[in-house]
Specification:
heterodimer; A: alpha/beta; Aspartate Aminotransferase, domain 1; Aspartate Aminotransferase, domain 2; 42% helix; B: two-stranded antiparallel sheet
Amino acid sequence: MGTFPVNKIREDFPILHQMVYGRPLVYFDNAASTQKPVQVIHAISRYYETDNCNIHRGVHFLSQRTTEAYEDTRKMIQRFINAASSSEIIFTKGATESINLVASSFGKQYLFPGDEVLISIMEHHSNIVPWQQICIERGAKVKFIPIHENGELDMDAFRKMVNEKTRLVAITHVSNVLGTVNPVKEIIAYAHTYNIPVLVDGAQSISHLGADMHDLDCDFYCFSGHKMYAPMGIGVLYGKEKFLEAIPPYQSGGEMIKEVFTDHTTFNELPFKFEAGTPNVEGVYGLRAAILYLQDLGLDNIRNYEQKLLKYATEKLTAMGDIRIIGEAKEKTSLISFLIGTIHPYDAGVIIDKMGVAVRTGHHCAMPLIEWYKIPATVRASFAFYNTVEEIDSLMEAIIRVKQMFG
Amino acid sequence: MTISELQEQVVSEFSLFDDWMDKYNYLIEIGKSIPMIDESYKTDQYVITGCQSKVWLHADYRDGKIFFSADSDAIITKGIVSLLIRVLSGHTPDEILNADMDFIDKVGLREHLSPTRSNGLTSMVKQMKLYALAFKTKSE
C-alpha cells in the first residue's frame, strides 16, 4: 500500500506482536483506545527513572527541570492545535473530564431556566450526560440535532434549531460509531453569527485529522491522550481565554489558588485555575512523546494510509453481501460499524474475538444514536496507522466464520 | 439431581469438545432448547440489565420449587442462560441461593464471566438468585 512504512512502524508497537487464542492479535479497537509506541512507553519510564517529583512548587533542581518539561509540553500542545496562548491549554484526565469541566463551570455562569444547549444525536455519552446533568441543575434543556440515514448531520435542522434561547453548541468532530466527520467549521461560523459559543469534542478526530484552533475558531475543544497513542488519564481542554477567565473554577485544592485565608480564597491565573492538585506529570511526558511520534510520521501521511485501509475494508465488506454498514457519510475517519445479516453483534463479536480479532460490539457509549437507527448494537472495526490490509483480510475470514456458525 | 450433580453433568458434556468452535456450536444448539418465556413476559419489566444483548427472565413458583424461562436476542446468550436454567430450574429457593456456580469456568466459558462482557452472565445469576430470595421471603 504505497510507501507508508507500516512494517517498520509496527516494530514500534510491542503489544501488537503477540498471539491470542493461538492466532496473531489483530487490534481493531483503536477508536476505544490506541496502542502505545515504545517512544511513549520509554518516555514514561524515563520520567520515573530521572525526573519524578512534584512540579510548580519546589525550588530544587528536579522540580525546576520537570516543571519546565511540563510547561514546555503545554506550549508544544498550543502549537500542535494552533491555539493563541498556552494559558488556554488545560491538562485534564481526558475528554470526559474536559467536557464535565465546561458543562459545570460554563453552566453555572451562563445557563438559566429556559435556556437551551444544542448537541447532536450522534454524541458519545460523555458529550450528552454532563449537559443533561447541568441542565437539570440550571433548569435548562438539551436539544438533539438529528442526522440523515447515511450518518451525516442534518445541517438544515441544526440551523432551524438555533434560536435566542441557545446558549451553547456542543458537537463531536467525528462520530465514534459512524466515523462521520462533521462540518464543525460551518457549525461554528453559523453559531457565531448569533454569538453562541461552540464546544468541539475532538476525541475521535485529533489522531486522524489534527486540529487547528485558529482555523476552526471554536470556543472550547477537547481530546484524550489515550486515543492518540499517549497514556490513559491525560487529556486536554482548550478554551478561549475570554471564556476561561469568565467561568468559575471546576475543582478546588492546591495549585489552583493564589492566596488562601481562613475565610476566603483567591484563585490562580490561567491555566492553573483549572488544574487543582498534583497533575498527571507522567501522562504529560507520554503525551509529549506521542505528539512527537505523530508529527514525525506526519498527519497527512497517516490520514492517507488510514483512508486506504477504510476504502479496502469498505469494499471487502460490501463485496461480502448481507452486510449493513451503519454510517456512510461522504467524509469518514477510518472506522466501520456494521451488522452481519440478522446476527446479533454480541454473537458476532464473541466469534470474531475467538479468531484473534479485537473489535468492539455494543452501543459504543452512544445509546441515543443506536436507538435512532433502531438496531440492537453494532460491530465496530476501527483502524490505526499500524494496521494492515492483511489484518483486514483476517477480519473478513472471521466474518465468514460468524456467518457459517449463525447463518 | 442436585444442582452440583447437574453442573457436573454439563461439565462432562463440554469436556468432549477440545475445540472452541465445537464448544460454541454446542452452546448454540443448547440455546435452541431453552424453556421459552411466554411472549407476555418479554417486556422491559423482565429484562436483565447489564447485558450487551437483551435477556428476558421469568420465574414461576410451584410446590416449593422455582421454574425459570427466558429468551435473548443473541444466540450465545440464549445458550448460556439455558445452561443456567438447566442447572437451577426445579430447585428450592434455598438450594438456588446456596448454589456455587463455578461450572461456567470449568466448561471453558470463563470469558463470559468477565466485566468486559458487560457482566451478562453475572447479572443473570444474580437475577435468578434474587427470584429465589423473593420466593423464599414470600413463603416464610
